[in-house]
Amino acid sequence: MYYSPQEIIETIQMVRTEHLDIRTVTMGISLLDCAAADTETLCGRIYEKILASAGRLVPVCETIEKELGIPIVHKRIAVTPIALLGGGIPPEGFSAVARTLDKAAAVAGVNFIGGFSALVHKGFTRGDRDLINALPEALAGTERLCASVNLATSKAGINMDAVAMMGRIIRRTAELTAHQGSVGCAKLVVFCNVPEDNPFMAGAFHGIGEPETVINVGVSGPGVVLNAVQKCPSADFGQLAETIKKTAFKVTRMGELVGRMASERLDTRFGIVDLSLAPTPAVGDSIAAILEEMGIQICGAPGTTAALALLNDAVKKGGAMASSSVGGLSGAFIPVSEDAQMIAAVEAGAMSLEKLEAMTCVCSVGIDMVAVPGDTPVETLSALIADEMAIGMINRKTTAVRIIPVIGKKAGQRVEFGGLLGTAPVMAISRLDSSRFVGRGGQIPPPIASLTN
Amino acid sequence: MEDSKNLRAVITVVGVDRVGIIARITAKLAERGINILDITQTIMGDIFTMSMIVDLAGAERPFVEIRDELTALGQEMGMEIHTQREDVFRYMHRI
Lengths: 453, 95
Known about the structure:
The structure holds 2 protein chains of 2 kinds. In chain A, 42% of the residues lie in helices and 18% in strands. Chain A is of the alpha/beta class. In chain A, the strands form 2 sheets. In chain A, strands 1, 2, 3, 4, 5, 6, 7, 8, 9, 10, 11 and 14 form a 12-stranded mixed beta sheet that branches. In chain A, strands 12-13 form a two-stranded antiparallel ribbon. In chain A, strand 4 and strand 5 form a beta hairpin.
């Protein structure tokens, strides 16, 4: 026999009972050749380019799913940051571009399109400023559009004017989508050191160093890792890391296979496999459950950060062996609303915002899908963003904030976003005042690269 | 690229044992021009499990159609039949 029955059964079980899936096949599309000085021409070119490039994305992925017997949960599109194209159009034109992207995504059959984005880590262009100002209405008026803003890098420092601005923009987005649990904020993420080839939403966009079109793949598999960890209850950390590495290798190989097949059939380049462990609300498909299986009573207890560090590193080591090109975010995600066990940890009082912040030092991405009370001052939102940007800047890693101030809700309540975005417990956030700090404005300088101790 | 040239599939069949399971499935494969390269079968308790490696190079229909036909045949027989490209197993279990 080419394969042992155990090998065949292991693979089938991974899909059937452990939720192994390909989380996303994301097609990156350059829109740089669509730039125009009037809104109508810009929108027309964008629409045509997206559908010409990604028209076959969904059917091709559906065929691959059937041939391999592995679900591809999301098919998505990421485009060039729109702020780069919109410098020539009037400010109100950005809403029209947002609607065009949303419509193109719907016609292509994808559930999200990313790239309503600006990179402002060192300052604003006119297009950047107009795009950011247009964000609340763009997110409130669309269904599939995802937006991101890069506020900081390790080379440039943190643009604190942009940090202050994003606090206000997030609040305004929450207000405009208040009737839907402030869901607009779930489609808006701010970054430090944003990757240009990330296939995961809401932060995906097609970076300027990327080719014309590209296929990037995000794998998943917390359930598979959990099952592997469950099989070695008394292993020491060395053995535990080894087990996770082997499992991550297998999971990533599926991403590599799907990426190669999809790019070949779509006649485009295969970009990267993103090794992120992405949870879903399904029982057992949880990062928190893996940490608890390692011996943490409830996620958030002392030891959680160390457990996450081990998990994150072992996944990368196993995954790096499995793929010819690894990129994107590549780390464990800890989105609160998308991880049933993480929600339980928050509701048990074990997990706080401060502990989540500590965990972001050792994994990707950051404060992700966290709901806070709707009356949180905008300066507090900005200050929280600044903290997270500082962690990324100093540690030369990606960090992000996707926070939802849920209008009308208080700490301890729940908010239902529906669909893909799950349910979030509203978490307590410090009531201390950070407004004088945020109000200073300017740029926090980047760290010195020597003197590393 | 090697993936597109490799037209082998792994078929797994699981269900309650009875007379004629292999006969029906292999008859369907022969009818569609599919060659069986390897086959292993066992009974655990009264559960029948079988895996086959087959070559679809001579098949007269596209992979997905054959997969759907086999899935339907499985439903008819009260068995679970999975048909997956062999690449899945090669990628996962062989370096």
